[in-house]
Amino acid sequence: MTEISTNTVLDQLKKQKSSRVQNSLDAIFKICTEQQERGLNEFSYSTIARLGKGRGVPTAQSIRNKTGEPYQTLITSFAKATEKPKNSNPHASKSKSYTWIDELKDPVVKLQANILYSQKIAAEKLVKEITPIDQVIEIFDGYSSASAVTKLTDLERDALEHLISTEFMRTQRLELGPNGSILTANKKERFFPVATLDAIKKALQHL
Predict the structure, then answer these.
(1) Which domain holds residue 152?
(2) Residues 12 and 36 occupy one common structural domain
């Protein structure tokens, strides 16, 4: 059976709806499309509402209400269009060094970490596509000119700041370890590797 496209779902839902509902559906469609372009299958009502705050998306509670059924239908169409095969390995898309992202319990931090990871993969793919065979590109990991620096978005900056906040440490039951690492409070196991705090602070300062 052929899946109905998300564009078709949007068009059908907007029929005989008030201009207010139509505008809300358009706003939700835009947020969901952005999620889809990032390669993320994260379409919970709270996530869509959070990302669309100030952009015309209703609150999560409004989406959950009986009157929010059109919004629910549209979001579900995106979730189904991007869902992974049932037999897929949840860690298969990430290298071993980054599987810790899937273990994050805070949904906001997990979302932003996934966004950053997807951007990293996209950049690496682009480099491979434009690099001639047998040619090596050397990258100077120092300060670049202002025009070459890619600034963090507000969402990315909020995510990094949250990772080093006392609130995150408290809710995740973590504590500072030696050399910029972060440890679990109970078992003293390493949660984030050495230099994590330094790396995040440097990114916030220069990006």
Answers:
(1) 96-206
(2) yes
Domain finish residue from 82, 110, 140: 82
Same domain, 120 and 181: yes
pLDDT digits (tens, 9 = 90+) for 123-144: 777 666 665 555 555 554 554 4
Question: Which residue bears the tokens 């030696």?
Answer: 178
74: left (phi over 0), alpha (psi -120 to 50) or beta: alpha
From 109, 204, 205, 107, select the one nearest 157 (Cα to Cα): 204
Q: Is the domain of 25 the same as that of 65?
A: yes
In angstroms, the CA 138 to CA 157 distance is: 28
Query: Would you say the pTM of this structure is higher than 0.70?
Result: no
Give pLDDT tens digits for 36-74. Answer: 898 888 899 999 999 999 999 999 999 999 999 999 999
Cβ-count burial 75-89 (b if 16+ within 10 Å, e if not): bebbeebbeeeeeee
Burial of 92 (0-12, 13-18, 19+ CB in 10 A): exposed
- Specify the 3-state DSSP secondary structure of 182: strand
